[in-house]
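INTERNAL AUDIT FORM
Audit reference: QA-55
Scope: verify that the stored structure record matches its stored sequence.
Auditor: D.O.
Record contents follow.
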Amino acid sequence: MKSPKDNDKINEETMTLGGRIFWRGYRSVPLWRKELGLKEKVKREKSFKRAPYPNGGPRRRQRRRAGGEENDNDPTMDYGYEWLLAAVNNMPGAASSVGRKGVESAYQWRTRMLEEYMKNLELDKNPREHGGDPYLWKGLRYVSKLRPPKGESPPLGLFLQLFEVAKVQEDQRRRSYRIKQVGDVLYSNENVRLDPVNESAYIDALFMVGSKYRALQLWQSRLGKRDVVESSYWHEFGVLLYIRRFDWRRAEEISQDMEKKFGYVPPKLMIHFIKLYCRLGSYDEQVEGWYRKLRDTVKSRKKVMKILSTAKSQTAVEDPPSSSHLLVVLEELLKQNYWKLAQKVIKDLQDLDAEIPVIQMLETIDKSTKRLSIISKNKRRRRSFEEGRPKIGAESSDFVPLLSMLISINPDILNSASLYQSWLRGLASMGLTQNAIQVLDAMVKRRNGPSIDDMFALIQALLNKHEWDSAWRLLERMESGELASQPSTRIYNQFLRYSVRMEDCQLVDQTVSHIEPPYNDTTLNMLLLFYFNTRQFNKLFELYTPVINRDHDPGHTTWRQLWLLIRRSYQTKPTAVRPDHRELFAAMAASQKYKTSLHVYEYAAHSMMLAGDYAAACAVLCYMETKNDLNPTIILATGLADLALKLKRGSKAVFGPGAASVNEATVESGHTALAEPTIPWESVCDSICSTLELDNPQTKAQVEQIASQWKTVGK
C-alpha cells in the first residue's frame, strides 16, 4: 500500500477535488504547495469558539491608544472582560488538542482570568447585582472542562465564593442550575466536600435540576458522618427529600429512626406527612395517625422543650410545637374535604384555648366547595386518579355539623354572604339538594341572594338526580324576581341539555318556550340536532328562517351544522326540505363570523346537487376561486363528479358521517399551499354537464351570474 506521504510517486493526474488527495481518510499536501515549499494549512478545530472582541479587538485598541482615541468612559473596555475572552478564545477546549503541560497551563490561565474578572466585578460588595453576569458563568463553564494539575488542589476559595454568589440568585431555577454548576466543579475533586448546610443546598439543586438519584446517594453517603451524627438536621433533610420524591415509606423509616435516636420529630415534618397523605387520597388512617402524633407533641410541649434544650448539636432552629401547627393542619384538611377530622382539630384547639380564625376557615371552605363543584361537573379522565382521590360526598353528613361548629364559635358569620354561598355549593356538590334548598331559602330571608354560579351548581345537582320539578321551580323563582339573580342563557341551556339527553320532546318545548330568540350558537346547535334526530323537519327548518333573513349571524361551527343537516335531510326525506339554498349561501357570504372552510363549501355543493340545482353547485366552486382565490381540490371535484353519476343512475348518494367538529381546520383567503392538487372550476362544470347531459355554455353563464350575485353581497 502506498503511503500518503509518498507524494513523489503520485502524478498530477490523480489530483482531484481542488488539488487535494484523499487516501483512506488522510489528507496529503497538494503537489503545488510542496513544490513551492509551503506547509499544509491546518483548519481550526471545532473546540475553538472565538467570541467577539469589544471595540474591534486588541490590535485596534492599540492603534486607538497610539492615536489618542482611547475612551475612558466606554463600559466595554473592561480589562477583566477582555482577559476572560482572551482565555476563552486562545486556550484549547479539549485535552486531546495539546499535551499534558499545555492543559495544565490552560487550567491555570483560565482560573487566573476568572479570578481577575471577579475582582473587577467586585462580587464581594455586590453579589446580587453582578451575580447574573453571563460571562462570569461562561468562564466557569470553560474552567470546568479542564482538570487541575496533578499534586495541586483547585482554587477552593474562588469556587466557594462563586458558590455563595450562586446561592443569592433571585430566580429559583437559575439559582439551582448555578449552584449545581459550582458544586459539580467542587465535587469533581475527591478530597473536597462542603459542610452539611451548603451540601444540602447543592443536593436541593440537584433535585430541582432532575438528578434525584445522585442527590439521594450524596445524602445517604453523609448519613453516618461525625458532623451530622449528633444532629437531627440531616435526618429532617432526608425526610423532606423522600417526601418530594413521593417515597413515603422510606420517609417514614427515616422519621422512625430519627424518633428513636433523638426522641423527637419536628412538627413541620408531621405537617408535611399530613399534606402528602391528604393529597394522595385514600390514606385516612395515615392522616389521622400523624395528626394524633402532632396533637400529642403539642400537648407535651414542656417535654419537647427539654429535648430541644439538651440537644448537643442543633444545626437548624426549631419552632417549638404550638397551636399554630394545628391551625396549619386544619386549613389543609378543609382544603382536601376532611370534614370529620377537621371537627376533631377544632375541638382540640378549643381545649388548648387557642384562637380559631373562623373567617379564614370560612374562606378556605368557600374555595374548597368551588373546587368540588368544578370536579363534579367534569368527568374524571384517569381511573387511577379517580380511585386515589377522596370520594365526593363520602363525608357529606359531616359538612353541616362542621359549619354549625364554626357558627357556634362566631355567630357573627351568619350575616356573611360567603357562609351561605359556600354552604350552598358544598351541599349541592355533595348531592344534598333538599338541604341546599333550605339554605337558599335562608339566604333569601336574609336578603343575601345567590349568584348565578351558585344557582348553576344547585340546578346541575338537581338535574343530575333527575329532580326536574324542583329545578324548574327554582327557575320560576328566578324569573319572578324572588331570587336576586335573573336566569341567564347558561341556566336555560342546562334544562335544554337535560331534556335533549332524555329525548323528551315535551321538556324541550317547555324549555324553548322560556328562551327568547335569537338563540345563541350553543342553543341553536342543540335544537338543530334534536329536531333532526326526532324527524321534526317543520321545527327544524323554522330555525333557518332568521338566518336566511339575516336577523341572526351564527358562528362558523353553526354554519357547518346548517349545511350538513340540509345534506342529510335530502338523503332522509327530500320533500321536507324547505330552505332556499341560494339565499342561505348568500347569507353565509355576507356573514361576519364565517371562516373560509373547504368542508362547508363541499356540504353546500352537495346539497345543491341533491336539490337538482347544478348551476348553483358549480357556482360554489366559482365563488371559491373568484372570491377566496381557492381552486377546488381533486377530492372535492371527484366527489361532485361521482355524485352526478349517481344522480344520473338514480342510485342513493352515500356520504360519510360528517359529525360537527369545533376544531375543524380552516384556511385563509388566497391559500395556495394545499396538501392536494387543485383543478379549475370550469373542468368540474364540464364533467357535470357531460354526465347529466346539460347545455354547457348556458350552464356556465348561469354559474357566473349566480357567483357574481354572491360576491356582491359578500364580506
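Auditor finding: record pair retrieved intact. The chain has a mean pLDDT of 75.
Action required: none
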